[in-house]
Amino acid sequence: MTSEGGFPRAARRFDSVGFSEIVKVRNRVLELLAQGHRVWRFEGGEPYMPTPQPIKEAMAEALARNETRYAPSSGVPELRRAIVEKVRSKNGIPADEESPIVVNGGMHGLFSAFATLLDPGDEVLMLSPYWTPIVDVVAYHGAVPVLVPMPEALRDGITAALSRRKTDRTKVLYWNSPNNPTGYVFSRAECEETCAFVRDQGLALISDEAYEDLIYEGDPHVSPASFPGMADRTLSVFTLSKTYSMTGWRAGYVLVPKRWRTAMQTVVLYSINGVSTPTQWAALAALKLSDGFLAEARAGYRRRRDALVAGLRAAGFEIDPPRAALYLFPRTPPAVASSSVDAARALLDGPRVATVPGVVFGPEGEGHLRFSFSVPEETIAGGVEALKSVAGATAATR
Known about the structure:
Blueprint: E1 3-4, E2 7-8, H1 21-34, E3 40-41, H2 53-64, H3 77-91, E4 100-103, H4 105-117, E5 123-128, H5 133-140, E6 144-149, H6 150-156, H7 158-163, E7 170-176, H8 188-201, E8 204-208, E9 234-239, E10 252-255, H9 258-271, H10 277-287, H11 291-314, E11 327-328, H12 340-349, E12 353-354, E13 356-357, E14 369-372, H13 377-386, H14 388-397
Parallel strand pairs: 3-12, 5-6, 5-7, 7-8, 8-9
Antiparallel strand pairs: 1-2, 4-10, 9-10, 11-14, 13-14
Helix pairs in contact: 2-10, 3-10, 4-9, 11-13
């Protein structure tokens, strides 16, 4: 036993696990707000709309019915049946009645999926840029994240890029479409090619589909588990957070193949012993909402996206509007700073515009900043006005 100052030290697994850089940015923002500064906040990932009223009412009704006791750790039967109906009809996934396991949001679903599959020393292929916590979740389990540059994969082909990095220790491919932070939506052909690689190499796939409903133009979302032979080797992770503005409710679900079901159920049982029972009845109401809610939400997101794109272009940022998700990932003008960390700091300390440095999403994110456009329209207007000083600096260097 090792100790520090006479006390047992924290588990060694944390030696290779970082702490969210996005949280660090948020903490600095909170410091500035406490000092009385006005900060234009684009660093988060919250839906701009409140939780729909029918979901709140379903929670109240569940409480009135005293639905407050332990539920089955994998989820209440009514919710699990609704999930099966949804993924069969909407995602084309051939789920059976026992496939869904209800989890405490997308983060818990991903953590549980990696816990189900990974042993120390296993390798996980993942495209970069990636959502920042993934490398730390992989490292927590003693496994190794193997980064595959997304520009290379899109240029040379996904199979070629993955094949260059696949080894005898490769066990899992992490897949995220629509992608956070870029908003890229992989096409059906790209997804099919990836699934063929996974099958041919005998790998498992963890599919992070948090933004499945937030696509604004072009082809719809494609679930990897909908392709032949993939439902048996894919853990499909979904969350209600983004689609239904339920980030604080902590509700999601994972579709689990039969061969890994007992392991996944054990992870959920011993980590949370099941999601809050009233929350599950609210989640059931969310899945029953009409498409009108989503149409309204997407219209609001498009309007915000386009306004922020225009403002960033005027400030000298290079950007193409993303097709999906909640974020812009523009290239930073050289006049702002030479690195994304310095650029984020300069914008926060100068015009008080809060962003996330692109490098925290992987090496391919260097030179970029992530802006969330899921903010009040007044924030976009005020932030764009504040960025005029950046535009002046950019113009002066030309």
